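Why do we care about 3D structure at all? Because function follows from shape, and shape follows, mostly, from sequence. That is the central idea of this module. The next example makes it concrete: a single protein chain, its amino acid sequence, and then its structure expressed as tokens.
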Amino acid sequence: MSVSNVEQEDLPEPQRILVIDDEAVVGLGCRRSLCPEGHEVEFHEDSRAGVEAALSGGFDVILVDLMMPEIDGLEILRRVKAAGVSSEVVIITGHSTVESAVEAMKKGAADYLSKPFSPNQLKMLLRKVWERSALIRENAALRRELEVDHGFEGMIGQSRSMERVFSLIKRAAPSDGTVLVTGESGTGKEMVVQAIHRLSRRRDHPLLACDCSALVSSLLESELFGHVKGSFSGAIATKQGLFEAAHKGTLFLDEVANLSLETQGKLLRVLETKRVRKVGDTAEREVDIRLIAATNQDLAEMVTEGTFREDLYYRLNVVPIYLPPLRERPGDIPRLVTAFLGRYCKRNKVPIKSFTPETMSRIESYRWPGNVRELRNILERIAILCDSDRIEPRHLPPEIREAPVQSSVTQLPRSWDDFKRLKQQVRDAAGQELERRFLIEALQRSGGNVSKAAEDVGMQRTNFHALMRKYGLTSDITS
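And the structure:
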């Protein structure tokens, strides 16, 4: 882009600009250049007053002189960044050296401007800074949009319990601390493990997993630690174990509660010494891995019962992350449903379907013993088999369609508006359950004859049929 073209381009919107410089000519020059184009320029010769203005926020760009008495430009930059002020900071320097510019950029400056500068140079720089800032804002907006659509590292949830899980993942990931992920089957423990690895410094190295419940004790030790040729029957070649294969990366031990006491002792030794010895070998090798374990059992209770080593439990439970079951976060269900259904409709190349309110109420009130895994599998089935663009209760599996609506609340909202909405939902759910039972009993009294049932309760047959469709009921009700 030529200078002449840049001169003709104004910034897309007026900017609030703060100038901190002990030379009055600089501030006055900025005002003369920028105010006629609609920008607001505030100028301070005194660095202390300038810092106070900068920390108050509200400026798009702060132009600050590098060399000033009392507080210099780099110190002002540091204070602005430490305070979390969102303004872009540009360093003005009459002592332009590569070192000073690089140091300012490392500390968070958006750019620098050398004295003396012309109005055109000032405008070119401001446009450059504006474009950079706009790109940052756009990327942040895209990240927020992705989190809405795809959740945190693929995990969807806005409940307080899931926000706590996400916070723990973010804090634990950069460290090398051992993590113990607990929760019922189907809650998504492996997704937590994958998120920790992706956000860790080991992300460019392997993430290997071992299901501790899949192998007998002797084969599991070989899988974890490796073996040498001839160490046992069938060991026809030397094999590398997962601890060695995961060197520099992450090793995930799933269902760690199933380890035998003997294997637990060997695992503890590896974790303490960071050295591993193959089955049948005498030599030890150093390993550098980050260990994450997971279980759906209560290890503390197993320690009390004597079936799990207390020392290993404390070694694994450095950073505990509990993944709540779906029934404890029912507010997350609608987002999970929308995300899964959209994914499976797209994958199977079928039109996106929507839920009737009654269907969604059924889904939200179900207890989901299989947790997110069960929900995901059922929605994939619906995406494939439902031949309508509206998903009604009749399209749900019997265990969900026929389950009584749960009106108990496990987690109370914090705001009054949310509480009022929850109260209305509970009323609606209870009313729908009464309506469903009313229809079932009428059909049972009439032996499944819809006309007789409608006449018995004083309804038109068409209206009775409509309610049956609403709740996915058929006339062959025998109990």
